[in-house]
Specification:
The chain has nine helices and seven strands. It has helices at 18-24, 37-45, 93-98, 119-122, 136-142, 161-167, 184-191, 226-239, 258-266; strands spanning 151-155, 172-177, 194-197, 211-217, 240-254, 271-279, 289-297. Helix 1 packs antiparallel against helix 2 and helix 8 (226-239) packs parallel to helix 9.
Length: 304
């Protein structure tokens, strides 16, 4: 996707990619938009955010299905007719569920399986003896006072399960998502939670000191340039209210990078409520891969 170098948005990133930008803006006014979701995402991931507005109608499913009612929608696969599939290698939700068995890499490849017994169904709620696995209920109990987490953001929300679990606990979560070889935005919306279509290179679209909770699992990891991670952490601090919680969930890095990332996290000014470091062993111990899971709190008093 050309995202090895990400340019923080300052109104200048879009013109850096004139060919992609010209292709994106070549469309018939008042007509149908090009079917160009991969192009749009390529621009987003390069820091061209927000995308320029267009005066055209995007492609939609030819025979769209009505959404399922709540609460049934939370844990039911949506009808295939709810998605325009042209940008994805899978053309049905059954295909997306089955690709969890594939040896090839796909972003969040098992998180479309929300059926009984799946890992996604157990995530954040099943008991675990791994100290890296915080539960939603334990995090909510850490709020001061208990019950003060009401609204929040999930950065890189996958298929929306974190937002769904929070909805079941009367907490409203909006989730950022990209559609990297899967209809993540459509899937979230079909489940009845709110997808926010933006990448980590954009300033969070919330006012200062407003959110009770920000959560991120895997998206904030060592694939992000360190300077951009630094900007992102300060932006999370900005949008949290005093006393708000930042749940850094399974931050991935390689052991020699510990000395690089810990000071970046520490300098922002969060109070550490929980801090767990452990090995990531799914690809073998010889790679020296690591995780940090942390529950951090914005101070109640100004840090400046």
């Amino acid at each position: 996707m050309g995202s090895a170098e990400i340019h923080p948005p300052a109104g200048l990133a879009c013109p850096r990619f004139p060919d992609d930008l010209a292709a994106f803006m070549s469309y018939p006014v008042n007509g149908s938009c090009p079917d160009d979701e991969p192009l749009a995402q390529r621009l987003l991931l390069r820091g061209c955010e927000p995308l320029p507005r267009r005066r055209c109608r995007p492609a939609a499913p030819p025979d769209p299905a009505a959404p399922l009612p709540l609460p049934d929608a939370l844990w039911t696969l949506p009808p295939d007719r709810s998605v325009h599939w042209s940008a994805y290698s899978c053309k049905s939700f059954r295909c997306l569920v089955d690709r969890r068995r594939s040896p090839s890499f796909d972003d969040c490849k098992d998180c479309f399986d929300i059926l009984d017994g799946s890992r996604e169904r157990r995530r954040w709620v099943a008991p675990s003896d791994n100290p890296l696995d915080f539960s939603i209920d334990d995090v909510l109990l850490a709020a001061d006072p208990v019950g003060s987490v009401r609204i929040g953001l999930d950065i890189g929300g996958g298929s929306g399960t974190f937002a769904v679990r929070m909805r079941e606990r009367n907490v409203t979560i909006v989730s950022t998502t990209m559609n990297l070889n899967g209809p993540f935005s459509s899937f979230m919306a079909a489940r009845g939670v709110v997808p926010l279509y933006l990448s980590v290179s954009q300033r969070l679209p919330f006012f200062d000191n407003t959110l009770d909770l920000v959560h991120s699992m895997h998206v904030l990891s060592n694939w992000i340039p360190t300077t951009l991670l630094h900007f992102t952490l300060f932006d999370i601090y900005r949008v949290l209210r005093p006393g708000g919680l930042f749940w850094l969930d399974h931050f991935f890095f390689v052991e020699p990078q510990m000395g690089e990332y810990v000071p970046v996290i520490d300098c922002v000014g969060f109070k550490k409520l929980r801090w767990e470091v452990g090995r990531k062993l799914d690809r073998g111990p010889e790679l020296r891969e690591m995780y940090i899971s942390a529950l951090l709190q914005k101070p109640l008093k100004n840090s400046w």
